[in-house]
Amino acid sequence: MHAGVGDEIQVHGRTVGSAEQRGEILEVRGPDGAPPYLVRFADGHEALVYPGPDCEVQAHAD
Protein backbone atom coordinates (compact mmCIF):
# COMPACT_ATOMS: atom_id res chain seq x y z
CA MET A 1 0.00 0.00 0.00
CA HIS A 2 1.24 3.47 -0.89
CA ALA A 3 -0.15 6.85 0.09
CA GLY A 4 0.73 10.51 0.31
CA VAL A 5 -0.07 13.41 2.59
CA GLY A 6 -3.64 14.58 1.97
CA ASP A 7 -4.88 11.20 0.73
CA GLU A 8 -7.98 9.71 2.36
CA ILE A 9 -7.95 6.37 4.10
CA GLN A 10 -11.08 4.29 4.64
CA VAL A 11 -11.18 1.60 7.29
CA HIS A 12 -14.09 -0.74 6.62
CA GLY A 13 -15.96 -2.25 9.58
CA ARG A 14 -14.85 -5.84 10.16
CA THR A 15 -17.97 -6.99 11.95
CA VAL A 16 -21.68 -6.56 11.30
CA GLY A 17 -22.84 -3.22 12.63
CA SER A 18 -19.41 -1.62 12.98
CA ALA A 19 -19.09 1.66 11.13
CA GLU A 20 -16.64 2.55 8.44
CA GLN A 21 -14.07 5.18 9.44
CA ARG A 22 -12.57 7.79 7.12
CA GLY A 23 -9.61 10.00 7.76
CA GLU A 24 -7.01 12.23 6.15
CA ILE A 25 -3.39 11.14 6.03
CA LEU A 26 -1.36 13.85 7.76
CA GLU A 27 2.06 12.19 7.67
CA VAL A 28 3.66 9.22 5.93
CA ARG A 29 6.31 7.63 8.14
CA GLY A 30 7.38 4.73 5.95
CA PRO A 31 9.76 4.91 2.99
CA ASP A 32 8.33 5.80 -0.44
CA GLY A 33 4.72 6.19 0.73
CA ALA A 34 4.61 2.99 2.77
CA PRO A 35 2.90 2.69 6.17
CA PRO A 36 2.61 3.65 8.96
CA TYR A 37 0.47 6.74 8.45
CA LEU A 38 -0.54 9.43 10.91
CA VAL A 39 -4.26 9.90 10.28
CA ARG A 40 -6.83 12.44 11.49
CA PHE A 41 -10.27 10.82 11.50
CA ALA A 42 -13.59 12.60 10.94
CA ASP A 43 -14.29 12.78 14.69
CA GLY A 44 -11.02 14.69 15.22
CA HIS A 45 -8.86 12.03 16.83
CA GLU A 46 -5.45 11.23 15.40
CA ALA A 47 -3.84 7.81 15.31
CA LEU A 48 -0.87 6.00 13.83
CA VAL A 49 -2.34 3.51 11.34
CA TYR A 50 -0.77 0.34 10.01
CA PRO A 51 -3.41 -0.47 7.36
CA GLY A 52 -4.61 -4.02 6.88
CA PRO A 53 -6.73 -5.71 4.24
CA ASP A 54 -9.81 -3.84 5.50
CA CYS A 55 -8.34 -0.47 4.41
CA GLU A 56 -8.37 1.50 1.16
CA VAL A 57 -6.48 4.65 0.20
CA GLN A 58 -7.94 7.19 -2.20
CA ALA A 59 -5.52 9.68 -3.73
CA HIS A 60 -6.10 13.35 -3.00
CA ALA A 61 -7.43 15.18 -6.05
CA ASP A 62 -5.29 18.20 -6.88
TrEMBL record:
InterPro entries: DUF1918 (IPR015035). Coiled coil: none annotated. It comes from Amycolatopsis mongoliensis. It comes from the Bacteria. Residues 1-57 form the DUF1918 domain. Residues 1-33 are annotated as: Disordered. Pfam families: DUF1918 (PF08940). This is DUF1918 domain-containing protein. Residues 21-30 have a biased composition (Basic and acidic residues).
